[in-house]
Each structure stands twice: as structure tokens, then as C-alpha cells.
# Entry
Amino acid sequence: MDWFIRKGEIVEEDKPKRLYYSRSSRAIGPPPTKVTITIDMCADTDNKGPSVYKDTRVCTLVEASADLSRIPHCKFPSVIGADGHAYYKIDFAVEITYCSAYTKYELIYDNVNYGPVTAEYV
# Structure
């Protein structure tokens, strides 16, 4: 597991952090129009440090859905998988900015900001 904030770390307001993701989708028809990611948190009440693997201390904090339809289809590269089929390879980031009264999530694709990501706290 990869953590973007660690216990005790000072969180700077209005300074974005990025979480990087990669998805692949079978290239049948147009590229996917939506991708959903889960951002987890680790309840480190006993000060063991953050988990390396998902265990009983890790739970879902937020599910974020990014609207990929704002990205032109020609921007999605396709690659041939080991099975000989074509796949869209989608490398993207979610930029998280902590502000005084809210948290902002934005979709970054090919170093272009495509705007807000819908976040639902679980």
C-alpha cells in the first residue's frame, strides 16, 4: 500500500498531492467514460506505523469517480496484451488539495487538469 499522508505529518493547506493510478480496459468500442478509485485510511491507534498490506486497520475513506468523457478519445493509447487483444491503457492521477473547509479532488491525465472528481465519503 502507498500512503500520501502519514500520521503526525503536517498537512499544508492549498498544496496539492497526487495519487497515481493505472487502469486497462479492453479496447472494444470507445474508451471508458468513468473510472472509480478507492482511497483508504489506516487507523494506527497503536502506533505500529502504516500498513504495507490491507489488514484490519485499513478501511475505505472515500470512493472517487472521475469522468473520463472530458478527455478526447485520441488521447487514450491502446496496447496489445499478453492475450493478443487490444487494451486502452489509462495512466492518470487524482490531485488532492486540503483547504480550510473542504478537500478538493481533481483528475489529471497526461499532465492536463480535467477538473473535479466526484468524491463520496464512506
The longest strand covers residues 86-98. The chain has a mean pLDDT of 87.
